[in-house]
Amino acid sequence: MMMNCCGLLTANKEPVPLKSVEVELEVRAHVATVVSTLNYENKEDKPLEAVFVFPLPGDAAVCHFSAKIGQTEIVAEVKEKQKAREEYDDALSSGQQAFLLEESDQSPDIFSLSVGSLRPGESASIRLEYVTELAVQADEGLRFCLPAVLNPRYQPQGSGGSGGSNVQMTSVPASLVPYSLSFSARVSSPRPVSKVESNCPLDALQYLNTEQTQATVKLAAGHKFDRDVELLIYYKDAHQPTAVVEAGQASAKPGTLMGDPVVMLSLYPEFPQAVMSSVTSCGEFVFLLDRSGSMDGARIKSARDTLLLLLKSLPMGCYFNIYSFGSSYEHIFPKSVEYSQKTMEEALKKVEEMQANLGGTEILMPLKHIYSQPCIPSQPRQLFVFTDGEVGNTKEVINLVKKNSGSHRCFSFGIGEGASSALINGLAKEGGGHAQFITGTDRMQPKVMQSLRFALQPAVVDISVKWDLPKGVSVTALSPPITALFQGQRSLVYAQLTGKSLAAEGCVTVKYSLAGHPTQNQLHFSLKPAEDTGITVHRLGARSLIRSLEMEERERGGERDGEVKKKVVELSVQSGVSSAFTAFIAVNKGNGEAIQGPLVRRNVPTPRLWGGCGPPQSIKMMQGPMVFGGMQSNMRMARGACAPVAKQRMMCDSPPMFQCNSISIEHKQPPRDPLLQLVSLQKASGCWVLDPALAAALGKTSEEVEKPKPALVNQEVWATIVALIWLHGFKMDAQEEWELLAMKAVSWLRAQNAPCVTECVEAGNALLGCNMQKDALGL
Length: 779
Prior knowledge:
Blueprint: E1 18-28, E2 31-41, E3 48-55, E4 61-69, E5 72-75, E6 77-80, H1 81-93, E7 97-103, E8 110-118, E9 123-133, E10 135-136, E11 142-146, E12 171-173, E13 180-188, E14 193-198, E15 206-207, E16 214-218, E17 229-235, E18 242-246, E19 262-267, H2 273-276, E20 284-290, H3 298-313, E21 319-325, E22 329-331, E23 337-338, H4 341-352, H5 364-372, E24 381-387, H6 394-403, E25 408-415, H7 421-430, E26 435-438, H8 444-456, E27 460-468, E28 474-477, E29 491-498, E30 505-514, E31 517-526, H9 536-556, H10 559-575, E32 582-588, E33 600-604, E34 606-608, E35 619-622, E36 649-652, H11 674-680, H12 692-697, H13 702-706, H14 715-730, H15 735-752, H16 757-768
Parallel strand pairs: 1-13, 3-33, 12-34, 20-21, 20-24, 24-25, 25-26
Antiparallel strand pairs: 1-2, 2-9, 3-8, 4-5, 4-9, 6-32, 7-8, 7-32, 10-11, 11-17, 13-16, 14-17, 15-16, 18-19, 19-29, 21-22, 21-23, 27-30, 28-29, 30-31, 35-36
Domain VWFA: 284-452
Pfam families: VIT, VWA_3
Organism: Sander lucioperca
C-alpha cells in the first residue's frame, strides 16, 4: 500500500494527525486553570481515528472538553464511562464524528483522547480545560508542572490490570516528537509577583500593572519535549492563611453542591517555637530506594549520596533499615536495627555498591514486606520512598499505604522527568507525609533533608476543624479530614455552605496537639462570595470529594451494589468534573453526510526519555492493560465483529536516553565532592576523629591539622570543632544539607563538657583561614 507521506510522520513513517498543542495557564494566587488546545489535521486520503494517551497532573479536575470542526463547536458532556464508550463506538459505526476523553483505570494522571473519524483533509481543534492547586515548595515558591513526558509505566507480572479501558500508549524518544508545543502563563495575586522561574527557557516576565500583581510569561519557542515544563512562581510576603467563598450557580438547585456556595480554606499552621526546637530523637526510619533500570546513571548516584547524608543525620537511639527494589527487592537488615557506628558503617558499605540493576519497578511487594514487620514501641515509623514513579498499578500501591496510614508516615520523592504525580502525591497524602519532585538539574539532597526535618518534627495528632458559622448556615466537608500538618506547609479544606444568613462573617478553628501541647490556629473570613472566580472553587471541591469517594469505593471493592460508584457518577455529571467512573463524550450530530469507508487508527506518540541505550535492562512479555512501544495501524472493527487476538505486550524498563553518553567502560570513581567526603568521615555519635582522612578532606596535611590542637583538648573534640568551622566557613550555600548532622555534632560536644572550646575555635579559625564566632557554630 502506498503511504501518503505528507505532513508529520512517526518513527514508523506513519502520518501523525496531531499538529500542535497550545497551552494557556492562568494562575490566581495558588490555583491554576489550564486550557490546552490540540490541533488535528488529516492529511491522508482515508478517514482516520486518532488516539492520544497523555499525562496530566494527578490531582487535576478536568472540567471542560469540546471540539471545533470548521464552524461547528460541540461541547462534550460527562457520562458514565461504559455508556460514553458505547455512544462513541455507535457514533463511529454509523459514520458520525465523536470525541472521547477518559481517565486511565490504572492511574488518575493518564488520560486517553480519541478523535473519531476525521475525513480526508479535515481539521479539528480540541479544547481541554482543567483546574488544580499549586504545591508550596520549601523556598515558598509555588510549583506548576505541565507533564510533557509520559514514560512507560511498568505493570507487575500477573497484575493483568482491572478490566475496562485498555489505555494503549505509543511513545517515541523525546527528540522525535512530531508536533509542537506553545505555552503561555498569566499570573495574578493580591500580593506582588516577585519572580517566575522554570526548568525550560522562558521569554522575559512582563508585568501588566505598576503594583506588579499581574504578569505574563511565555515558553521560548522550540520546546524539545525532553522534560516536563515546570514553573516556580514567587510572591512577595510569605503565604498567609486565606478563605475564598464562591457563590453557587444560579442554574443549579440550592442544597446541591453546585447550587450552594463553596469555601476554600488555605491554612498555614505556625507551631510554637519552643516545641519546634525539640527535635525528636526517636523513630524507625525505613528508606525504600528504586533500583530499576530507568534509575541508571546520575539518578542512582544522587540517590546514593542522599542516603549517605540521611544516615549521617539520623539521631542516636533511633532504628533504621534500607530496602531497594526493581522486579525483586532486597533489604540490608532482616529487620530494622538500632542506629550505631557499627550498623551505620554496614549500611553505608552496602549503599556504596548499589546500582540500578534490579529490572522493572515493582514497589508493591517491598511495601507489603515493610508493613508486615511489627512496629517498634515508642519508635514511630517514618517511610522514605525514592522512585522515578514508573509504575502501572498506582491505585493499588496508594490503597496499601492508606490501609497502613495509622502506623507510619510516608515521605515520597519523584525523581526525574515524567515521574507519576498521582503516585508521588498519593503516597504522601495517604501516608500523612510530604511529597517532593526532583527534576532536571535539581539537587536531591536539600529536598530530602527538608523532608527529614519534617519527619523529625513531633507528629501532630488529634487534628480537628471546628466551624463557627451564623445561625441558619450549615457546613458539609468536601475534603477528607486533615491527617498531617507540617510547619510552613499549606493544608487545604473545601466545604459546602448551605442556608442563608444576614451575618457577614464565619470563623474556622484548627485544633491539634504537638508534643503534648494543645495548640490552635483561627481564621475569620467573610461570607461574601468573591466576584471573579467563576466556578473554579466548586470544581476543586467536587474533585476533592470525588477522589475521596473513589478511594472508598476501592477499599470496599464495589460492595453494596456500587452505591459509592453511583454517588461518584452523579457528582461527576452534576459538577462537570471527570472521575475514574465517567468520561467526556461529544458526538457531532450535525446534518453532514455519514463518513464512508473503514477507519484507520493512528496512535499519536507521547514523548518518553527511556530507550536508545543498547538493550533494555529487563523485557517482559505479558498481557497487561497498557501497550507501550510500537505504533499500531489497525482497522477499526464494527461492533460485534471478531475481536483481534490479544497481542503479546512488550515492556521494558531501560536507562533514560539522556544518560547514554555518560556510560563509560571503565568505572572510574569521579573525585568525591569535598562536602560528602567530610560528611562520610563523621561517626554515628556526631563526632569526627583526628586522622589523615580528615586532614585530606580539609585540604591539609595530618601535621598541619594536629599541630595547632590545644594541649588539654582531646583529639575528637578538636577534630569535631575544626569540621564544624569548615562547614560554616566554606559550605554555607549547602547548609540545609548538613544542618542536622552539625546539630548532632554540637550535641555531642556539649555532652563532652570539654575545656578550652573558645581556644579551639580560635586555633581552628587560624588553621582554616576562617573567622567563625563560637555562638555561630552553636557552641
